[in-house]
């Protein structure tokens, strides 16, 4: 794998419309604005991976755990890494790995000893394999359904969901 040299930094207010256009051109839900709001409130950091002035990946790190827990069993206040994406043409080039490592570094700096994330248990085998390679372990409490709403460019509302598991990594 050829690892790209990328720059990872927190989102900035003046980049949000650009991030929406680059990552979510057909979605009017403004998810990137919402993630930046988590950062602005001090409850996390929205990490953006940049390559040649182009945003190519992101993760939202929430200090106290996910904003919502559909499983009902997340061990709050364990930091949570969510909303991860790498643009298709930049996958398998170390982007997600570098974003995750940056998040782990920030979590350790805050004094936490563990981090969690959710992954599609059957429909996202590449991501699950990456997390396992990075020493994330299935939480062992089964699957749960995660769902989210969106607004398409044509103004229609919809809902998507996936069956997930939590995975955790000890950072000691």
CATH class: Alpha Beta
Question: What CATH architecture would you give?
Answer: 3-Layer(aba) Sandwich
Round the Cα radius of gyration to an integer and report it: 16 Å
**CATH topology annotation:** Aminopeptidase
The count of strands amounts to 8
Proportion in helices: 10-25%
Question: Can you tell me about this structure?
Answer:
By secondary structure, the protein is an alpha+beta fold. It has one domain: Aminopeptidase, CATH 3.40.630.30. It has 4 helices and 8 strands; from the N terminus they run E-H-H-E-E-E-H-E-H-E-E-E. Strands 1, 2, 3, 4, 5, 6, 7 and 8 form an 8-stranded mixed β-sheet that branches. A hairpin with a 2-residue loop joins strand 2 and strand 3. The longest helix is centred in the middle third of the chain and has 15 residues. The model has no long low-confidence stretch (mean pLDDT 95).
Q: What is the compact description of this entry?
A:
The chain is 24% helix and 34% strand. It has 172 residues and is of the alpha+beta class.
Give the SSE layout:
Blueprint: E1 7-10, H1 16-23, H2 31-40, E2 44-51, E3 54-62, E4 80-86, H3 95-109, E5 114-120, H4 125-133, E6 137-138, E7 144-151, E8 157-170
Parallel strand pairs: 4-5
Antiparallel strand pairs: 1-2, 2-3, 3-4, 5-8, 6-8, 7-8
Helix pairs in contact: 1-2
């Amino acid at each position: 794998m050829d690892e790209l040299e990328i720059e990872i930094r927190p989102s900035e207010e003046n980049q949000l419309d650009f991030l929406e256009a680059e990552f979510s051109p057909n979605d009017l839900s403004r998810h990137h604005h919402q993630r930046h709001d988590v950062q602005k409130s001090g409850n996390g950091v929205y990490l953006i991976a940049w390559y040649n002035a182009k945003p190519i990946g992101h993760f939202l790190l929430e200090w106290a755990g996910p904003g919502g827990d559909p499983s009902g069993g997340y061990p709050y206040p364990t930091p949570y890494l969510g909303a991860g994406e790498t643009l298709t043409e930049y996958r398998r080039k170390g982007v997600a790995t570098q974003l995750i490592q940056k998040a782990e570094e920030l979590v350790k700096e805050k004094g936490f000893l563990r981090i969690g994330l959710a992954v599609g248990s059957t429909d996202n085998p590449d991501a699950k394999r990456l997390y396992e390679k990075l020493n994330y372990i299935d939480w062992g409490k089964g699957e749960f359904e995660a769902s989210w709403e969106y607004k398409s460019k044509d103004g229609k509302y919809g809902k998507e969901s996936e069956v997930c598991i939590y995975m955790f990594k000890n950072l000691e």
